[in-house]
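As a representative case, we now present a protein record of this kind.
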Amino acid sequence: FHPLTRAHIHEIVDIQFEQLVRKVLQRQGFDAVLTEQAKDLLTAQGYDPVYGARPLKRLMQRKLINEFSRMILSGDLKKDDSIRIDARDGEFVFDKSDKGVEST
């Protein structure tokens, strides 16, 4: 058994993003992409050598899914909208973008 490294967590970010965000959003008619900066921030904040990837999942719930929920409930996000999730100054930034934008 080897503890997870930051590199492993970075890979897990993609998997968790697919499971926690994209599938939920896509079922409701939305799409989302995650920039490398946002992946790096999730990796840094979600990394815990003792607990593995568990903190990452909770972090994504608090920082991403909760924000999507707020945007949907407030009417800021409408069907067929796509959101680009970036990171600036240690915070996640959500910008509407055209569908089909790939993560950078």
About this structure: Residues 60 and 66 are 9 Å apart (CA to CA).
